[in-house]
Design goal:
The complex is a heterodimer of chains A (349) and B (427).
Chain A lengths: L1 E2 L6 H6 L5 E2 L10 H6 L6 H11 L8 E5 L3 H12 L5 E5 L7 H22 L5 H23 L10 H11 L4 H14 L14 E6 L5 H8 L4 E5 L5 H4 L11 H11 L9 H14 L4 E7 L3 H15 L5 E6 L7 H16 L1
Parallel strand pairs in A: 1-2, 1-3, 3-4, 5-6, 5-7, 7-8
Helix pairs in contact in A: 3-4, 5-11, 6-8, 7-9
Chain B lengths: L12 H19 L4 H18 L8 E4 L5 H6 L3 E4 L2 H10 L2 H9 L9 H11 L8 E6 L3 H14 L3 E5 L6 H22 L5 H24 L9 H14 L3 H19 L10 E6 L7 H11 L1 E6 H4 L13 H10 L4 H5 L2 H14 L4 E7 L9 H12 L3 E6 L9 H16 L1
Helix pairs in contact in B: 1-2, 1-4, 2-10, 2-11, 4-6, 5-6, 6-7, 8-14, 9-11, 9-14, 10-11, 16-17
Classes of the chains: A alpha/beta (349), B alpha/beta (427).
């Protein structure tokens, strides 16, 4: 069962007997000619890419697609996906922008509706026990990924930003039952404590933005003389940062819906104070020296968010650079020039 | 660039010029009448801009709001509404300052491909051409930019902003949620004004809002006649006036005048087009700065717009007013308003509506004005074109344009391409 937006409760798909697969595209840019006939040039290239892959039968292995009313582009992508029946099942959750108690109640109803629809489609009853098992499994995945990401606090992070992205890319595609043991093994192989190395330290960069799945792009950035130590991307940290809290909310549906609405907010949410607080905490904890911020062309949420964040970071003397790009790019001459100048500015030239 | 706008430093020159321009049109129409409703439209628009201009002088709170915020609540609370995307556009249309506003909006860092209506709104604010706003209310419904534009503007004005959410489906549970949003909006406004909402005033404003919608539905029914009994430009006027002033008596007077006009035309078996050659289903919004192009279609091409799905269609089910539950009545009505219904409720209901209208209104073609900076609407054109051809067997022309920015497509070019389409279909 495919899913697009990180507000989609992945555990429900699993509890209904599906393998949840994030519909995030392959790596790299693809020609979008046919998709542009269905969507429009102002639909962001991330959604045009995913739709094109659907038209190319790249997602024929899916039984369905679940996503949210994340933004205008995602909404119309999903509407067209459903209309043209690119998968037998499509469901769109209406996602609030605020987090008040009425919003929680509304969102919980959305989650319950998804549960009902998945049960009807799969013929599998999602019992509280089944759902709790899925929650435990996914909590383990997220906990392990977070532990891995936290090693980047070290002076010499044992993994690069591009490696972390590759690992998460695998984790959102393969069964968690197989992914978790591999991840545990990897964590064991890493040094137990920060290695005492000497030598030149590279500038510590944070990545910001929305959907970024091409690890070659991160590799390209790191190849310009910096190390990506933190990110707030929905394809990495925002995906795994928060767990479902069954201790606080014993009802698994309640716990799930709370976690998804309250998790590390994306720029489309109105909870900007919390988003800023989390980002500033990351900047501090990971000793970030500069923010590289990906804006997929035509995305109004992240463009606005960048201008806001940039002002906040300026007060901490942290420079920020917006990289407006098409989805899937791995690096180009223009980007190279801009990234080089930025790295030089933050101290790595 | 750091932007901090100070209150009370408005340069009213452009707004005054827009008001003067509307007054001239109104006076001209008094001397040279076209239709009663058009006269009332200009009168209401004149009042709308003047009320905003003089809100502070009159001791009223001026509330800037985005699309789909129910203005009935503002009228009930004796506040002055300002539609923060379309009203600057109306000001620009009256004074021809579009490019100046777009350039100014771009200086904030908004890209040119941002919705031009919002770009102009931010531009007008940065220029100091808008009156000081006391608060903002925005709605996250079918247009991300509406909410983001409100956020930017409220930050620039250092004024508080409240956001309402709306469900995209309409179950009873969804309705309760939306009613709760409206209650929160009222609480927010009460905090701003330090005054409680008078339930009687709310009841009256909602009654007027619902009445206007009911008359509009009636007009829709009457318009199924041939020849088409309504002027092409009237649909845009209906759309704007409802968006700006729902809950006021002016809107009801206006819609009733429209209804009288179409009833009379149907009775006389005549329409504004001298000879009706084409019956057009109009989709999305024609360029608001080229109203004369709609007249040209009607008068010179014999092309009547028989229905405008996004601007005028409220659906078939009756819209009702329950005096004991005014907020619920308002919620039900608001969720069905044109444009919101089409942008916020998914593709399938929209396609069903369009097919039904094409049949009911005996359209022989459709024109889709694809506003290039809109994120929501143009991503539906392919599906619409296909269902119209497959199910109703009528062609649809997609017109790339910009609803608010006249510099994107020259009027002559638009006319040429439409004329070519009409002649191809006629052949």
């Amino acid at each position: 069962m495919g899913w697009v937006c990180t507000y989609t409760p992945e555990e429900l798909l699993h509890a209904a007997g599906f393998l949840p697969v994030r519909v995030i595209g392959g790596c790299g840019e693809i020609p979008l000619g046919e998709a542009e006939g269905y969507l429009y040039r102002t639909t962001c290239s991330a959604m045009r890419t995913l739709f094109q892959l659907g038209l190319n039968k790249g997602y024929d292995f899916l039984d369905g697609l679940v996503t949210c009313t994340t933004c205008d582009s995602v909404r119309r992508f999903a509407d067209n996906w459903r209309h043209y029946a690119l998968t037998p099942f499509t469901h769109i959750l209406t996602l609030p922008h605020k987090i008040t108690e009425p919003d929680h109640r509304f969102w919980r109803e959305q989650v319950v509706e998804l549960k009902d629809k998945l049960e009807q489609f799969s013929g599998v009853r999602i019992t509280p026990e089944r759902l709790k098992e899925s929650i435990s499994l996914f909590n383990e995945t997220r906990g392990l990924l977070k532990a891995l990401a936290q090693t980047r606090k070290w002076d010499y992070p044992p993994i690069t930003g591009s490696e972390l992205l590759e690992i998460v890319n695998a984790g959102v595609r393969m069964p968690k039952e197989q992914f978790n043991p591999l991840l545990r093994q990897l964590l064991k192989q890493l040094p137990a404590s920060p290695p005492q190395l000497t030598g030149e330290r590279k500038p510590r960069i944070m990545l910001g933005g929305s959907l970024l799945n091409n690890s070659d792009f991160v590799k390209f950035i790191e190849g310009r003389g910096c190390v990506v130590v933190a990110d707030e991307l929905c394809s990495t940290s925002r995906y795994f940062w928060d767990l479902v809290d069954l201790d606080r909310y014993p009802d698994p549906i309640e716990a799930l819906s709370r976690r998804y609405l309250e998790h590390f907010p994306c720029a489309r949410m109105l909870t900007t104070a919390e988003r800023d607080e989390r980002i500033m905490a990351m900047v501090k904890d990971y000793r970030v020296q500069g923010l590289l911020y990906e804006v997929i062309r035509y995305c109004v949420h992240y463009r606005y968010d960048f201008s806001r964040l940039k002002r906040k970071l300026q007060s901490l003397n942290i420079p920020a650079l917006e990289l407006e790009m098409e989805y899937g790019v791995s690096g180009s001459g223009q980007l190279m020039t801009r990234v080089d100048a930025f790295i030089e500015m933050v101290g790595g030239g | 660039m750091e932007h901090n706008l100070q209150k009370n430093v408005t340069d009213f020159g452009t707004l005054d010029k827009a008001i003067d321009s509307l007054r001239s049109i109104y006076e001209h129409r008094q001397k040279h009448p076209t239709t009663d409703d058009e006269l009332l439209y200009y009168k209401a628009m004149l009042k709308y801009l003047s009320d905003a201009r003089n809100a502070r002088r009159d001791g009223k709170l001026l509330i800037s709001h985005s699309a789909f915020v129910p203005t009935e609540i503002l009228y009930a609370m004796d506040m002055v509404p300002w539609h923060n995307a379309m009203a600057p556009g109306a000001m620009a249309n009256a004074t021809k300052c579009h490019q100046e506003l777009i350039n100014s909006g771009s200086s904030y860092g908004l890209p040119q491909e941002c919705c031009s209506a919002h770009l102009m709104a931010v531009g007008a604010l940065l220029k100091g051409w808008l009156p000081p706003f006391d608060a903002f209310v925005s709605a996250y419904m079918g247009c991300d930019m509406a909410a983001i534009g409100s956020k930017i503007q409220s930050e620039l004005c250092d004024a508080p902003c409240f956001n309402i959410e709306a469900p995209s489906s309409h179950t009873e549970e969804d309705l309760k949620y939306y009613v709760g949003q409206l209650e929160d909006m009222i609480s927010f406004l009460e905090e701003q004004s330090h005054q409680k909402l008078d339930p009687g005033k709310l009841r009256e404003a909602v009654r007027l809002g619902v009445q206007a919608a009911q008359v509009c539905q009636d007009i829709g029914e009457i318009r199924k006649a041939a020849p088409a009994p309504l002027r092409n430009r009237s649909a845009v006027q209906q759309y704007l006036l409802h968006l700006f002033m729902a809950g006021s008596g002016e809107v009801v007077d206006y819609f009733e005048a429209v209804r009288r006009g179409v009833v009379e035309n149907v009775r006389n078996k005549k329409g504004p087009a001298p000879e009706e050659k084409h019956r057009i289903l109009t989709l999305f919004l024609p360029p608001l700065h080229y109203m004369k192009m709609l007249d040209w279609l009607e008068k010179e091409q014999g092309a009547s717009s028989v229905m405008e799905t996004h601007a005028c269609y409220w659906g078939e089910a009756p819209i009702e007013f329950n005096p004991d539950r005014p907020l619920e009545s308002l919620a039900r009505k608001s969720l069905r308003q044109p444009m919101l219904r089409q942008l916020h409720s998914g593709l399938e209901p929209l396609l069903d509506d369009i097919v039904k209208q094409a049949r009911d209104y005996r359209a022989d073609m459709a024109l889709y004005y694809a506003s290039i900076t809109c994120r929501t609407s143009p991503a539906t054109v392919r599906a619409i074109k296909e269902v119209l051809m497959e199910q109703v067997h009528i062609p649809m022309m997609v017109i790339d344009c910009d609803s608010s920015d006249p510099t994107y497509t020259p009027e002559d070019k638009l006319k040429d391409s439409i004329k070519e389409f009409l002649s191809t279909v006629a052949d």
